[in-house]
């Protein structure tokens, strides 16, 4: 460091460069040439160099298009088009909604000020101009504009990044082509719903064709939602690919994922996961769960789905955790329903009640839809039931897997 | 969620009321700080008046456990009922935090 002088001691021009006003563009609108030159000299003394002049409202509107000012210094009483009218027209264009318009006028009655503000003025000073005050106000408005622009830029940048991340996350999930191929090869039809509660979510699922006609499926829900939870889904995707799903039983697979996640997740973060293998030849669904929701299995002819067991220590809490192997019969025509906990945390019973739908409530809704032969219609009907039950304020994922007869 | 702390002879009992969700993050942080400050070795979270907990809420209970561990205090969850009990049971939280009825 060479020890730069404190800002107060810098020449005015340099100080403004620090304020980010050096490149500011100001349009001076006044029908009086002497007034314009006075304002011009004043602005230049304040370190503003990009200045354009207009003689009346019409002229100003034309020049604004080309000059794209950061601030307009506007006189009110002008021939052709006065300042009030110009201001109104300017504000009618959404592009100039937040452009600061500093009125400088010899009109000094309260009604004149009120009229100017009603027309869309940002600020008002009366002639004769006080140089120090005018410059101070110009600086304030330009600085505010710079800050607003930075904020808008940051906002749109963040939005674009989130959108990109959302698309990346969506691409991690199996697409319709893969699901169609899987159905053709194994007779397991899959219908899905994936809806993060904000731009990004902590839910994630996957499906894999195993040798000998079996199908592996998993559903993951990271604690919390938003960016942090979404980043964890990318981690988990990598871990699942690394482990591979061919040789391990679902319980062994969960234990392996858990061991790897334990080293990665900070305290307070964890994931629930259900992983299972559909074995059509044996007519069975083998599964294991780390605190996930209870899988629901419906057999043709049954009135209601059977509830599996989702209990198990969530992933990422205890490296030595082991998981139980569980089993449900899955005959031809059976439907398996997997879902994230958003589906059983929907509040019911009105404002003051803390009751939620819970898995029995969900099973009841599911049971009412089971006569629907079309799986896609069943799933969308069930989702409509959930939406009608109450607000869903978490990521919602639902998978319906049907074994074709 | 809101809470009250009752300091007894052998233990400090913190009673949570209402819903424990992601929105209570800051409040639970404050609470954990208060639990660390009182001298008692045994810190009990009384969940009997808690009516709902989501996954973020469970995460915060686990953070509390870790902080109490670090402060060499015992940490106990007591009296979970209804949805809270169901969620804690499904997640087998009893494997890592002592739970009492």
TrEMBL record, chain A:
Keywords: Hydrolase, Phosphoprotein. It comes from the Bacteria. It holds the Pfam family SpoIIE. SMART domains: PP2C_SIG, REC. GO terms for biological process: phosphorelay signal transduction system. One of its GO terms (molecular function) is phosphatase activity. The modification 4-aspartylphosphate is found at residue 75. Residues 25-142 form the Response regulatory domain. Gene3D superfamilies: 3.40.50.2300, PPM-type phosphatase domain. This is Response regulator receiver domain-containing protein. It comes from Azospirillum oryzae.
TrEMBL record, chain B:
Residues 1-101 form the STAS domain. SUPFAM superfamilies: SpoIIaa-like. It holds the Pfam family STAS. GO terms for molecular function: anti-sigma factor antagonist activity. PANTHER family: ANTI-SIGMA FACTOR ANTAGONIST TM_1081-RELATED-RELATED. This is Anti-sigma factor antagonist. Belongs to the anti-sigma-factor antagonist family. PROSITE patterns: STAS (PS50801). The lineage of its organism: Bacteria, Pseudomonadati, Pseudomonadota, Alphaproteobacteria, Rhodospirillales.
């Amino acid at each position: 460091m060479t020890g730069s002088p404190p800002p107060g001691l810098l020449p005015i021009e340099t100080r403004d460069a620090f304020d980010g006003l050096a490149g500011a563009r100001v349009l001076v609108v006044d029908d009086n040439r002497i007034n314009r030159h006075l304002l011009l000299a004043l602005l230049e003394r304040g370190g503003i160099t990009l200045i354009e002049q207009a003689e009346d409202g019409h002229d100003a509107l034309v020049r604004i298009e080309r000059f794209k000012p950061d601030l307009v210094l506007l006189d009110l009483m002008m021939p052709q088009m006065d300042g009030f009218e110009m201001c109104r027209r300017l504000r009618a264009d959404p592009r100039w909604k937040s452009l600061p318009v500093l009125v400088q006028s010899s009109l000094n009655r309260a009604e004149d000020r009120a009229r100017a503000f009603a027309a869309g003025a940002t600020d008002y000073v009366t002639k004769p101009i006080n140089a120090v005050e005018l410059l101070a106000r110009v600086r304030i408005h330009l600085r505010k504009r710079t800050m607003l622009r930075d904020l808008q830029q940051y906002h749109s940048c963040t939005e674009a990044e989130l959108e990109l991340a959302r698309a990346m996350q969506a691409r991690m999930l199996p697409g319709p082509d893969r699901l169609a191929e899987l159905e053709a090869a194994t007779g397991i039809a899959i219908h899905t719903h994936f809806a993060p509660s904000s731009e990004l979510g902590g839910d994630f699922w996957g499906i894999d064709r195993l040798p000998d006609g079996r199908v592996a499926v998993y559903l993951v829900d990271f604690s919390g939602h938003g960016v942090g939870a979404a980043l964890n889904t990318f981690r988990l995707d990598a871990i699942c690919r690394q482990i591979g799903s061919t040789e391990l039983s679902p319980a062994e697979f969960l234990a392996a994922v858990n061991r790897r996640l334990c080293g990665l997740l900070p305290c307070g973060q964890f994931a629930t996961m259900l992983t299972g293998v559909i074995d059509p030849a044996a007519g069975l669904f083998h599964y294991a769960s780390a605190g996930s929701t209870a899988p629901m299995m419906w057999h043709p002819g049954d009135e209601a789905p059977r509830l599996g067991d989702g209990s198990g220590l969530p992933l990422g809490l205890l490296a030595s955790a082991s998981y139980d192997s569980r089993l449900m019969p899955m005959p031809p025509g059976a439907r398996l329903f997997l879902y994230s906990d958003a589906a059983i945390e929907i509040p019911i019973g009105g404002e003051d009640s803390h009751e939620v739908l819970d898995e029995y409530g969900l099973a009841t809704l599911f049971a009412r839809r089971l006569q629907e032969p079309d799986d896609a219609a069943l799933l969308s009907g069930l989702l409509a039931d959930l939406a009608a039950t109450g607000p869903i304020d978490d990521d919602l994922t639902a998978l319906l897997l049907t074994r074709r007869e | 969620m809101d809470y009250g702390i009752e300091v007894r002879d052998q233990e400090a009992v913190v009673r949570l009321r209402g819903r424990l969700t992601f929105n209570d993050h800051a409040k639970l942080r404050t609470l954990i700080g208060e639990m660390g400050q009182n001298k008692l070795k045994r810190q009990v979270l009384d969940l009997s008046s808690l009516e709902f907990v989501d996954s973020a809420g469970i995460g915060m209970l686990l953070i509390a456990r870790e902080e109490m561990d670090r402060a060499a205090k015992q940490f106990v969850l007591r009296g979970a009922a209804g949805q809270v009990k169901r969620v804690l049971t499904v997640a087998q939280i009893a494997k890592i935090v002592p739970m009492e009825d």
